[in-house]
Amino acid sequence: MFPADLPEPAELEQRYPERQLPAGALVTRIGPSPTGWLHIGALYVAMINRDIAHRTGGRYLLRIEDTDQARELAGAVDQFQRAFDYFGLPADEFDGVGDYGPYKQSEREAIYLTYARELLREGKAYLCFATEDELADIRRRQDASKIPPGYYGGWAIWRDRDDADVQAKLDEGAPYVIRFRSPGEVNGRAVFTDAIRGRLEHEDNRNDVVIVKSSANAVRLPTYHFAHAVDDHLMRVNLVIRAEEWISSVPTHLQLFAALGFEQPTYAHIAPLMKQISGGKRKLSKRKDPEASVDFYVAEGYPAAAMLYYLRGLANGRLAELPLAEALEAPIELAEFGVAGPLVDLVKLDDISADHIATLSGPEILAAVRVWAADHDADLVPVIDANPELALAALAVEREGVENPRKDLRKWSDFRTAYGFFFPELFTLVTADDERIQGVDPALIRAFAADFVAGYQHLDDGQEWFGQIRDLATKHGFAPNAKEYKKNPDAYPGSIREASQIIRVALTGSTRSPDLFAVARTLGADEVLRRVGAVAG
RNA sequence: AGCGCGUUGGUCUAACGGUAGGGCACCGGUCUCUCAAAUCGGUGGCACGGGUUCGACUCCCGUACGCGCUACCA
Asked: Are residues A333 and A291 in the same domain?
């Protein structure tokens, strides 16, 4: 039933001794399951765990909880690594690094079996040969008579079987699971303390939960509950921060820790991240919501600092009131957690992110965009690489030397739409009948543009430069300002506003753009003439 | 169904049992060649019902609603 060379618990206790850490040091962990891409909630919990461990002089571990081999997704572990790297949240110990490994549950089979065998020896666990059909039948009968469901008491058909029955099944090679013999009573209550919520009371666990999955599997793996007890004890984790959906299983965990003779960790259950839906909110779903995946934020190009700042603000409201740099340094306090699940608000994230990017210099932004584009917009890379000076000049427009820099970049993927027009390779010339120049007769547009080209002076004073448009507008009959035009709309083809739009669309291909003079200076005289010339026809 | 967790404007959050305040969003003004920004102002909230109290967002009970757990998923 067990390998001959299985270690004894005492040997494991020796191999994974208590950590030598300063008093009050907290050892925490994140245990993502590679059954899907990393969830934004996992990133949130990872950040919290890491922050608290490091602030107290403890350790933060990354443990891959791959005990559900049927649902495992290839490549998920690598994606975890990339995601944690992107957000600057590396673990102190993880697969291959650290004295308390392996940090992959699928490689800890012997460790789990050691403790399972021990519980078996002590009569605190037993072999269960119940088939799927039998379990379904038990469930059906319980449902029918409105009895609380579960494998317990008289329903636990293998709980108190004769050794002979067990041996017979073993002899015929029937697969079995190992179940915990729960000491819980039917109407028992469990009371425990949560570091965030205080005293919690819950129906006690009475189920003889499975602790080791079917012997028919190639690798004998534990269920979450058993792995949690064994791993967190052996890895000397003393603070378990996890999502609140685990509150219901704390009684089970407490029983397991007690049966194994382990000291129980402190629990802190945090509220899950939610998503707004019409008429309410629900937990972010990995399958339905793209923004549930960390990949979404990486692909969109949200700066890591902005994400972390946003997430910290959700964890502790106080941190949302602090400036970014300060909030990133300030400690996250368990006592300050809200208990209701906050909504992930992409609009708020955008705002934070735009504010943050506005504090960056052009070269910093360009470097980040370049890194982002390499993975997510390959066509943009050669364009940037061919014109680094132009890229920097474009980013400098209304950003450098001004009091309030433009906030037109919320994420790196915005660069193409906001600044792409500066690059001739990404710009499509505009013609006079373009729908973006609305309300003005194409013939007039052509004449206006032609005049502009004919007399263009690449002046370096903003007022003087714009004076060219002003003069031309007057010459072609445009009203000097919007007010005049509004007063007497039939007398003019438009106002200075409409006239400016001709040049704006010609130069930028958009009705909205940064300051025209700055754009023109950045583009250079030749390019300005080429673009306006195209409108002239 | 049972058990648990929760509920302050649209959203994130403050407020010894004593005038419900701020951020984002939204709306409007200013600025202006457009947009963004900036700045000024505005709309909007204690889920409901009882109880305790001189006084309840706050404490207690109930109801409703939301979320979760009741797996050889985590």
From this structure: yes
